[in-house]
Amino acid sequence: MTIPQKKKIEGAFTLLPIEDVFYGEGCVNKLEEVLSRYDIEQALLITGKTLFNETKLVEQVINSSGGRIKSVFHETQQHVPRESVLHCVKMARQEGIDAVISFGGGSPNDTAKAVVMGLAENINDMSDFDRLMIKFEYPDKIEIPSIDGSNVVPLIAIPTTLSAGEYTHFIGITDEARKVKDLYIDKCLTAKVVFLDPQLTLETPEWLWLSSGMRSVDHAVEAICSTTAHPFTDALACHSLQMLHASLKECKKNPDDLTARLQCQLASWMSVSGLANVTLGLSHGTGHQLGARCNVPHGITSCVMMHNTMRFNKEFAKERLAWIAEILGLCDSETDADMAADLAADSIQQLTEDLGLPFRLRDVGVAKSDFRALADDAIQDLIVATNPRPVTSPEVVIELLESAY
Question: Is the pLDDT of residue 23 over 90?
Fold first, then answer.
């Protein structure tokens, strides 16, 4: 297999403080043991309405805790609005909790990280979020506030989707007044323990399981194409991409295949491992704002934007895109790079279609009249500034949105 051209690299590599990842059928039964290890007696479980109201899985997780879960917050909302976080922080403070457990998809997980931050930083009202969020001014002015790690309670994550936020140290929280998703980041927000139990994912709606899997595909693709790509992340992203490409199709064919589901979970983890060390691009950057402004689900934004972003970046990431085509077995090292790059983008779109997911903005409720506001918001996202093809103005973002429509 072709290895992309050598380049000079130097610096430091950040490893996040995840201590354990348990995986396999029934591994959630180790929850009591883990809580005991950290002397946790009064944990708050944060989950979603559907899991709480329509399944018995929350009860199963509570039983697995051996009585160490004191209370449950099940009012999490998509895209994690500030108001929802504030409500949960106040509840956690009143209950005197000593740990937070997230159970569900990206919204419960980001809410859980936000509650950990809110307790540590004594967030009491909407304006308190402003002093902690990342502030970015194009092209390179950035302010990243630190979070007080001395008051952080342990965070444990039990995911039921594949969006992989459980392994990261950043949060996306939506300011509904501005209709913008802001980013918050600190290593102390990282989960200490993650449980990958495929049995707990069987109740996840098919569209959510598969689209969140495409979100992990997006992590892998943008990591490979990153302007700061690193051999460590290359290795994990490449294998993750191969596993997801195969296992997501297996899940579509047979939703009860626990082996395929666990393969997806492991690949999802791999897709973001080391991602703190590489910059991403427009697929993620526009996706943040499509969620905040147009309420497009997290994974669906990747279904719509990823293959279009690959084409948009082609002349600036051709070698890396060609490598993706080779990784997926679409060509060999002798194939013309231009043709191979096209094959890579086409294969990601085809995977999206094969999974029965939308692949155009027009199909997910986004109107052309939204483009200007989306572009203006996206240009303030530091991820957009690191896209392989330089983004010098909102008009460049609009060009991509037009191609995705």
Answer: yes
